[in-house]
Design goal:
The strands form 3 sheets. Strands 1, 2, 4, 5, 6, 8, 12 and 15 form an 8-stranded antiparallel sheet that branches. This protein has a 5-stranded antiparallel sheet with strand order 3-7-13-10-11. By secondary structure, the chain is an alpha+beta fold. The chain is built from 3 helices and 15 strands.
């Protein structure tokens, strides 16, 4: 799918108090290793090879937040980006937010956020039959507190291609980057300090 805009950004728009509160809530929850695909649903079946493959693709710690005040703050920006970027995707639900902690050496390699299939019966009725359409990434701490951790997009949506776009326009604390969930993207390894972010996914009916 050809896009005029791979992502839409808002630089430093969220109040510092909001970011600090999200950070406090995220750190207050029990954090666990981030997995890929359906690995978290079959932890007892994972082999050493599974963990080796995971370490090559993703290394970070996450917790989950489901506060309405978070979504109330974020949703207007998602609507604006969806319209201004010309995507105009129909969506009507947001999954619980993922708080992520990236320490030195941690990263998330090339991936898509979208589901390969719509959510099934094993999910809540609000998710059933829907797919991720828009992703939203929020920077929660000051960029002076860490190095690395750049959010990158692949312009051709092909991880074998080297045409990479770095989202450098939005690096302030409280910045928001919104993009179609099918876009290939990655978080480069953090080299110093800790990078904190919050990610939300906005769902709708499958593409027609």
């Amino acid at each position: 799918m050809n896009l005029k805009y791979q992502y839409w950004y808002f630089n430093g728009v969220l109040p510092e108090r909001f970011c600090d509160l999200v950070l406090q809530k995220g750190l207050g929850e029990e954090r666990h290793r981030a997995y890929i695909g359906n690995m978290s649903d079959r932890l007892n079946q994972l082999t050493q090879n599974d963990f080796d493959q995971l370490h090559k693709k993703r290394h970070s710690s996450i917790s989950w937040l489901n506060y309405q005040w978070i979504f109330k703050m974020i949703h207007p920006f998602v609507e604006i980006a969806n319209k201004n970027a010309g995507w105009n995707y129909e969506w009507d639900w947001t999954e619980q937010a993922q708080f992520t902690e990236y320490k030195p050496g941690q990263f998330y390699g090339w991936h898509q956020d979208c589901n390969s299939e719509p959510y099934g019966d094993d999910k809540s009725p609000k998710l059933k039959g829907k797919i991720r359409k828009l992703s939203c990434s929020i920077l929660l701490n000051n960029p002076k507190e860490y190095e690395g951790g750049e959010l990158e997009f692949n312009l051709r949506n092909n991880v074998e291609d080297d045409q990479v776009l770095v989202a450098n326009e939005a690096k302030k604390k409280g910045s928001i980057i919104i993009f179609p969930s099918f876009c290939w993207h990655q978080v480069k390894p953090v080299t110093r300090g800790i990078r904190y972010s919050l990610v939300t996914w906005h769902l709708g009916q499958p593409w027609k």
